[in-house]
């Protein structure tokens, strides 16, 4: 069916079920399909040159516009809260208030830095931001076939939009919901817009009023791409889902988290920095039967 599913990075708990979903997505046609994806560490790479790639938050946190003291405080927050975010032994209920705490403290620190809107493009250009290998084929295929791509991110919207723009793939079929910055008349950051989106509230509660999924009510077949347990609820607001294929990138603490990921995602991609499998599935679905 899809040769890329034979890659060594691919793990599937229920291969027959997965085959059935992919077949249904193909037979029911492209007009019914939409893709819902996380951004950081899902469309962007987790590792590059033997090091961690930056998230959209990290890009800003480590940039030249942040004071040394600000950088240290933001790094301390990361070192304290990131292990909690990915801890397989804590429940989502335990994690949620702690994630609100992390994002709130980080956003407050960023606001203190008097960041200029006009600096964002250069900050991204100077960063080590990298989209996964195969990103161009992914964005191009979706655009060419008029398939909506909804990027639902707990990162920083202004930064991730700039990454996609600089990669020349910010097409008209791409919509982003994320944490956006607001600037005053002088172009200085004053606050982050509500609602605050963190790893574990990526669901309909933060999409109220956007009407996004309602406009796409005929797109009842979904490919969902994520890298955390929080990403599994990204499609909860879609009315009358017929088929959903959940693909999860397992980037970190692979051994510890494998079981949970296999129980929750249809396809798990372990330490795979590419979009090869996703592109292979899309190609198969888009081939006329
Ligand atoms: N101050 C922060 C807050 C969060 N992060 C990381 O960004 C990721 C964004 O979340 P997604 O669910 O959209 O991928 C998240 O995984 C946090 O680890 C950060 O780096 N700094």
From TrEMBL:
This is 5'-nucleotidase. Monomer. Its EC number is 3.1.3.5. Its main location: cytoplasm. It catalyses: a ribonucleoside 5'-phosphate + H2O = a ribonucleoside + phosphate; N(7)-methyl-GMP + H2O = N(7)-methylguanosine + phosphate; CMP + H2O = cytidine + phosphate. One of its GO terms (biological process) is nucleotide metabolic process. Belongs to the pyrimidine 5'-nucleotidase family. InterPro entries: HAD-like_sf, HAD_sf, Pyrimidine_nucleotidase_eu. Keywords: Cytoplasm, Hydrolase, Magnesium, Metal-binding, Nucleotide metabolism, Nucleotide-binding. It is an enzyme of class 3 (hydrolase). It comes from Cyanoderma ruficeps (rufous-capped babbler).
